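User: Can you predict the 3D structure for this chain?
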Amino acid sequence: MIKSTKSSKGVLSVELVVAMTVLVTIAGVLLAMNRSFGQLNRRLWAKHICTTAAQARMDAMTAGNPVDEAALKHLWPDVSVMVETAEGTGPWKGLQKVEVTAVKTIKSHPIEVRLTRYLPPVKGGADEN
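Assistant: Here is the predicted structure, written as structure tokens:
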């Protein structure tokens, strides 16, 4: 019988190094994915908040009793809401175009939501005789 004189002492340490490298690579990829999903979640949440603020402002204007600025700042402190009105043109002539824009900044990246609706003119306003 011939006895093998090969030593296999180095195989175990090489396998451990390869396994550790694979685990560290997987952990790094998972960490990067977690950060990108967190950033995406923050942006989507900011868009949701902007949509909610703009929709509340638009619904209040549609109902005829606009929300005051203090209430908006209390409910959505980091959101700036702007309202622009114009006369309707074309098929919307005789209606008032109301555009509400809500903006929130996340890490120097502005998130903007813009809602537009055509409303009947306000009765009893300064323009009516």
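The helical segments are 9-63, 69-75. Residues 12-119 form one domain.
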